[in-house]
Amino acid sequence: MRHMPTLERLPASDTTISDDFGLSVIEGLSQTQKTLPCRYFYDARGSSLFEEITHLPEYYPTRTEIGILQTCASEIVEGFSGGDVLLEFGSGSSVKTEILLDRVSDRVVYVPLDVSEAALADAAARLVERYPALEIRPIVADFSKLVALPDEFSNSRITGFFPGSTIGNLAPKEAVGLLSNFRKVLGQGGRLIIGVDLKKDPRVLIRAYNDAAGVTADFNLNLLVRINRELGGTFDPEAFHHKALYNPRAGRIEMHLVTDRAQDIMACGRPFHFSPGESIHTENSYKYTVPEFRDLAEKAGWKASRVWTDANKQFSVHELI
Ligand code: AVJ
Q1: How many whole angstroms from 59 Cα to the centroid of ligand 1?
Q2: Domain count across the chain
Q3: Which residues have CB under 6 Å of ligand 1?
Q4: Residue 2 domain-assigned?
Q5: pLDDT at 19 over 90
Q6: How far apart are CA 49 and CA 214, in angstroms?
Q7: To pair with 263 at 20 to 30 A between CA atoms, which of 39, 134, 163, 185?
């Protein structure tokens, strides 16, 4: 057995400590349109519910993106030379990365970057077994708060990898900010491979976020369960229902938690009032056409290069240089 790679902790990741769940909840529930940030979906139960979502028949993005990556992987990796870096933003379990690593594990240094040290450790343990020649340099950090990479990478050509259409959670302006920061962090010769969900028939979109088995509903409602557990909340999750809608003007799926009756709840030691029919807006998932996303990337200073889609034009994988 090979030694586990050592973990690098970037100073930027310290800022996650000040990213307080309680403060976000107080702020979000105090607004006229109540909101909660979608990054808090992913506690242990939320992460396993999301994993379940990715296998649902209605939730096409994951399997479609995997299919695209399998088809275009050899094109994506053709530019890699020995010592080049493959850096994954928010790597989680690194499952999709294996599609690329299957072809270049003997040539690249893989840098999985994630806030979860446990996820990095699990992924690294699996990858060192699977790819004996692969050099792995995990980094514990929040990809949305990166300032710079460790000095050891300053002379490397780096390909960033950001699959999953995570970019869709950000409003277009914020997405431009994130992409331009990725560009800065990846440096000279940097390249980005990014998965982006495409605009399509709203009925297909709504089904993907309102599945028949109710897994997405549980995923959404779990946020209230988490507030109850971690912040002394008094939500009755039964008094809320999941709603997914397509907002065509904004080009996004919205997820809400709606209550049918007036209620007063406590969270973080504070009272919050709900009127009948009031909702908490819990997630946005923006959809783009290929030209719309290329424009957005160019606003962030990237040059849109190759793009791959599936035959049904459901999902896209872009190469930015
Ligand atoms: C992980 C942000 C890509 O927007 O499709 C899935 C999250 N929310 N079902 C998405 C999600 C509800 C997902 N992303």
Answers
A1: 9
A2: 2
A3: 53, 61, 164-166, 168-169, 209, 216, 283, 285
A4: no
A5: no
A6: 10
A7: 39
Based on the fold, state whether residues 98 and 137 are members of the same structural domain: yes
Confidence of residue 15 (pLDDT cuts 50, 70, 90): very low
HSE value, Cβ hemisphere, 13 Å, CA-based, for 238: 0
Residue 47 belongs to domain spanning: 21-57+202-286
| Alpha-carbon gap, residue 280 to 222, rounded angstroms | 13
Distance CA 130, CA 65 (A): 22
Q: Rounded distance, CA 312 to CA 149, Å? A: 38
128-154: per-residue pLDDT in tens?
A: 999 999 999 999 999 999 999 999 999
The pTM for the full model equals 0.94
Calculate how far, in angstroms, residue 190's C-alpha sits from the geometric centre of ligand 1: 27
Same domain, 145 and 258: no
297 and 212 both lie in a single domain: no
Residues 221, 137 share a domain = no
From 221, 242, 285, 286, give the residue whose CB has the most ligand 1 atoms within 8 Å, as the site to mutate: 285
* Region 10-23 average pLDDT: 65
Residue 193 Cα, ligand 1 centroid: separation in angstroms? Answer: 19
How do residues 229-268 score in pLDDT, each as one tens digit? 999 999 999 999 999 999 999 999 999 999 999 999 999 9
Contacts of 91 (CB under 8 A, 6+ apart): 97, 112, 113, 114, 119, 120, 123
User: For residue 220, which atom of ligand 1 is closest to its CA?
Assistant: 12
Please give the distance, rounded to the nearest whole angstrom, from the Cα atom of residue 269 to the centre of ligand 1. 30
**What distance in angstroms lies between residue 188's CA and the mean position of ligand 1's atoms?**
31
118 and 247: one domain? no
**Atom of ligand 1 at shortest range from CA of 253:** 4
Task: Give the rounded percent of residues in the chain with a pLDDT score beyond 70.
Answer: 96
